[in-house]
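Hey all, sorry for the wall of text incoming. These are the two entities for the joint prediction.
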Amino acid sequence: MAVIRVAGVRKRFGGIVVAEDISLEIAPGEILGLIGPNGAGKTTLFNLISGIHAPDGGEIWLRDRPLSGLSVVRRARLGIARTWQHIRLFPTLTVLENLLMGPRHYPGEALFGGLFQPGARRALAAQSRARAESILARIGMPDASHKLPGELPFGQQKLVGLARTLMNDGEVLLLDEPMAGVPAGESAEILDTLGALPGDVAVLLIEHDMDLVFRFATRITVLVDGAVLVEGTRDAVARDPAVKAAYLGEAAHG
Amino acid sequence: MEYVYSILVLVGLYTILASSFNLIIGFGGLISIAHPIFFALSAYVSALANLHLGVPIPLAILLGTLFAAVMSVALSLPSLRVSGDYLLIASIGFQLGFVEVIKNVEIAGAASGLTGIASMYSGEHRSLAFACTTLGIAAVVVWAVHRLTHGEYGRAIQAMRDDEECFASLGRSAMAIKITLFAVGSGLAGLAGALYAHYFQYLSPEQFGIIQSSLILTMVVVGGMGTTLGPVLGALLLIALPQAITFLNLPPSVMAPLQGMLYTGLVLVFLFVRPAGLAGKPIRQ
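and here's what came out:
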């Protein structure tokens, strides 16, 4: 059964159609690459899934649960985690604290937990902390815990953003251009992290770097002008003449 | 000594007021000036509950405190939908309107004020007992505000202020935090109000006007917004200062405007010279 199912979703902003009858499904363990030229509606689709925008029509399902009417907060709690094109780490929190904002369950953040911190909550907080530290070690940043995001190179900031969503432990990961703007010298850890995503998570990956998409995605959906142009396996998409004309050709020329 | 005790009572009450206001404005980033409303609501509710219903004073104080917290939730549901400048404007409206309403409520003594409120303590050590009570409660309030703003809850508050949309996308409700901070802050203002009522035994609408807003705001700004000790220093300084100038023996017609000018002057000086306030750099900024 698909973890996330987008069925006939439509959205327009004024006169501009940003999503035209989009349908797609992602199974557990699958990475669906979402490609398309700028303005094709890729990030808008993320915003529709994560609940920032409400669709004008159609429905989005998380397993057998329709998401209509659920807020961004509720959807995140159900296990839909996302990264942002522009990272959006909390600038005044340290790297470790940013990661600790990731988990969906955070009893210490309740009012009375904040005041009294009973033992059970302290244990949970310690668990989260140990988990965050192990993730930081895995992504090669064991010493960055107490740094502020602004002190890190851009590639590491992206990595921390990615790590924060991994702390969510959700079923769905929406990755918005994890490699955009990252200099070649800082990309290795991000590639390693993408290669080692949890096996049961459904991933939707937006990326302009075609090599990266073709390397990680199990299937690819091509969006153009808010509509699905082609959807299929890597090979099928790479061979499709319409894709070549609309997107890959354009990229080759650009 | 009586005089010193009465000053200590004021220091305790204003420490509670300034610390709770700091929770809302300094830590929560919610720019509202309507703090005196909750100070007043609880003062009146506690006084009236004791006066007309015979509720014992400690229970009446608790009742007033809870009433202020509950009313703040009712007020914050519509108000917190707007933020920044609009919240400030809405709070000015509430603040000005509230005083006018009180002036017309007969049971609350209307414009001439409510008299005959029972005192919490009696006997010759009344003021000393009051000073100990208010300073003790103030210490607990300062501790609680510190705990709230420096643990995991504080981390969430800070993240919410950094980026609300991202905060929501991590499954955290900014609205829940704002309403909680507003309710806790307002409830604590209420606690100060109820203590105030049973100490001074007289309430009038003028005591809770916008001048009161500016006094509490000055304490927070001068002491250091978003710091734990700032409001304590602010309260100490701004209670001590007017007492100091009373020794100048100036006529009342000069004293009142002089105090107002001192508050305004202090805020201006601090905004230019030391914007982070006496307690220094906000800890987490």
